[in-house]
Amino acid sequence: MTSPLLSRRNVLLGGLGVAATAALAACTSSPGSTGTPSRTFGTPTPIPPSPGQKLIEKTLTAKPVTLDLGGRQVSTWAYGDVAPGPLVRATAGDFLRLTLDNQLPADTTIHWHGIRLRNAADGVPGLTQDPVKPGAQYVYEFTVPDPGTYFFHPHVGVQLDRGLYAPMVIDDPNEQGGYDAEWIVVLDDWIDGTGTTPDAVLKKLIADGGTASSGDMGGMDHGSMGGMSMGAGPWGDAGDVTYPFFLVNGRPPTDPEVLTAKPGQKVRLRIINAASDTIFTVALGGHRMTITHTDGHAVQPSEVDAFYIGMGERYDAVVTLKDGAFPLVARPFGKTSGGQAMALVRTAGGAAPGADVTPPELSGQVLIGSQLQPAESAKLPAKAPDATVDLNLQGSMKPYRWGINGAQFGKNEPLTVTAGQRLRINAVNMTMMTHPLHLHGHTFALPSGLRKDTVLMAPMQSFAIDLDADNAGDWMIHCHNIYHAEAGMMIALEYAK
Ligand code: C2O
Ligand code: CU
Questions:
Q1: What integer pLDDT is reported at residue 178 of this predicted model?
Q2: Cα–Cα distance between 252 and 192 in angstroms, integer?
Q3: Can you give the pLDDT at residue 29?
Q4: Chain Cα centroid distance, residue 425
Q5: What is the pTM of this model?
Q6: Closest ligand 1 atom to the C-alpha of 113?
């Protein structure tokens, strides 16, 4: 098929891009085993909390479940009986002992996304731990140093695109609060159990390139891109997968979550994008929102009509509620089928907006998160970089193969850093798709000083991102489109030993 879109998606620019194509073409790694080094770790050594540290304990059971999506039964995997799974909440400085009980028919792990934790608890099989076998348990022990909005998910294959995700909130002991209520809003794109599974979707993407659909939506359709389109807006191409549902807190807009408060109350929203392949535009009908934090870090408060949120990103927003019933909409960027995600915000009676409502705020001033300015308290101390490395995002839809620095994960050279260094990463997106670039175990600063652990990189966009190497270990940097990651768009960042 010579879809103009596909050929656009295949474009790789510059000499590096051409070299990368050759390097990528030489790879033979298969899905689910993207060259992960075969290190073994054994049972983690238990560590006790320090004297005076509060201990938070919880068991998370990963298991097969059947969920009801507005009357449609889907079988999937989740932490407990529902998706999202149970909230893990603690205060900065607490010690967490979280036991993963694997009742799945597959190996799994848990990664605590965005938390600056000890390397051994980071949940990356082959890099920080052994995969947790079916029927086995694994104990994660770590201190949570920084307040903020986080989430957790497996770091195995494309398991994130099942129901295996849950919010994590670390409270700030010194925060004033100043709001009447707090709502956690978890966004997702859903395909599991709708006639296919994420593993089958990935297989199909690799076999055919292009767009994967749920089994009951007519399957592959390269000619029309199965409902994909170039979105108007900053992100170019939409994702790779056609989803039949988009969810807020596990519910479709036909059976929405209802968030209730009183008119005039001030609410803090903690919005998490747990989707695998979908950037959303988020708006609350009838309101403007004040963005206060992203990825846990405070920003200079910024009032917006709407904002984009990439996979793995988090935004906290404060809003003073009006009187009535309002749609909280997350509109999938560049996707024209599957509708949208929506919750209902209610401070009074009255008719609820319909599942396909378009709040005018969606076409108002839409914030690109990387343009936020950091709060003073969130800035890294001024310092020139001690070392610089390049990070080039590369790949193509056809063949469906993604990589960093010339090769797929496992075939590419790990980046290295020495403890104590300020490392500058010159990240360049050499593809015609947007990629949410995510770093484990640290947060980085954009040139503005804005602190993030996940940043949307538009086609051909580059960022010089700085981090302080203050957390020794072997870490991942990868695209948080889980299909790209699993098709190779990951690289390790290792501390010199
Ligand atoms: Cu949420 Cu390595 O990712
Ligand atoms: Cu990507």
A1: 87
A2: 14
A3: 37
A4: 20
A5: 0.91
A6: 1
